[in-house]
Design brief:
The chain is an all-alpha fold and 322 residues long. It has helices at 2-12, 16-42, 44-55, 60-63, 73-84, 93-117, 127-160, 173-184, 193-216, 226-259, 274-284, 294-318. Residues 1-20 have low confidence and may be disordered.
Length: 322
């Protein structure tokens, strides 16, 4: 029987179904990356404002008084436009696309692959198992993809949080990575990755898990009416994106604060680590400070929702969605 088992296994790896699985992975990769790049470009101004407000208490120029604090979303929008020009709203957007394409592509590609490893659950009879499977596969996919592209995520934060109308601190992606690595070593590019992984699990878990679960109950999910199908998917996606954003926002704030000090020597760091950062923010600024920029983030979730809808529609058009 053993020779037959080996023969069957060899045949399994060369079947058309196996090749189709590889094609599906590639299609998911391309669809996820493309939808992410389009959505991020559309929402870049909102995302930049969110980052500026979120990181201003760790920004050296604002701490020193060289640049005035932003008092809110409207003030930030107005000042960026007047001090840096309208094009500045897209500062770091190319880096964000370079970062986001593999991030989102790996998220979707890994999620579908990881989800296939779990036993299937009937959403009508085993709702809890069905929901937890979606959350777990989404969370693990997010953590895996983050580990791959984290230096790009760091560079995105630093480029977008540059304030004032004077000389830029970094002249692009490679300059940012080079200067940071030169000052603090390669490890400094991964400053904050611990809390990022902790935060990405609830974010991606809720983001993908809730969306997949809501989609399972969406009566228009496979409707031939393009408007009803897209609108219902967007409603599911928007609910998922807002819930995920608030569930993980404190972790995101701590991550951005830690990233803001990466190019400095450790002796000059304001925060010694994740726990110290959480403690200092709550003690010196109040617990609500962990949610600074959350209002702009809620607006930004339109882009996150758009990613899910675009991905779903692209894979439907390619014939790779189930």
């Amino acid at each position: 029987r053993q020779p037959q088992d080996h023969l069957q296994r060899a045949q399994h790896y060369t079947t058309p179904q196996s090749k189709m699985g590889n094609n599906d992975f590639l299609m998911n990769f391309l669809a996820g990356g493309t939808s992410g790049a389009v959505a991020k470009t559309c929402t870049a101004p909102i995302e930049r404002v969110k980052l500026l407000i979120q990181t201003q208490d760790a920004n050296p120029k604002i701490i020193s008084g060289e640049v005035k604090r932003y008092t809110g979303i409207v003030d930030c929008f107005t000042r960026v436009a007047s001090e840096q020009g309208v094009a500045a709203f897209w500062r770091g957007n190319l880096t964000n696309i370079i970062r986001y394409f593999p991030t989102q592509a790996f998220n979707f590609a890994f999620k579908d692959g990881i989800k296939a490893m779990f036993p299937k659950a009937d959403k009508n009879k085993e709702f809890v198992k069905f929901f937890l499977t979606n959350v777990a596969s989404g969370g693990l996919a997010g953590a895996g993809s983050l580990c791959i592209v984290y230096p790009l995520d760091y560079a995105r934060t630093r480029l977008a949080s540059d304030v004032g109308g004077g000389e830029k601190q970094f002249n692009g992606l490679f300059d940012c990575l080079k200067k940071t690595a030169a000052a603090g070593g390669v490890g400094s590019l991964y400053n904050g990755i611990g809390v990022s992984i902790v935060g990405i699990i609830p974010y991606r878990g809720v983001y993908f898990g809730l969306f997949d679960t809501l989609s399972g109950y969406n009566p228009y999910q496979k409707s031939d009416n393009n408007i009803m199908r897209a609108a219902s998917k967007f409603l599911c996606a928007q609910s998922s994106a807002i819930s995920a954003g608030y569930a993980s926002y404190p972790f995101d704030t701590v991550r951005r604060r830690l990233q803001m000090q990466s190019e400095k020597p450790e002796s000059e760091w304001v925060y010694k680590g994740t726990a110290d950062c959480f403690a200092k923010i709550m003690k010196e600024e109040g617990t609500s400070a962990l949610f600074k920029g959350a209002g702009a983030n809620a607006l930004r979730t339109v882009g996150a929702a758009l990613v899910l809808v675009l991905y779903s529609e692209i894979t439907r058009a390619m014939g790779t969605s189930s």
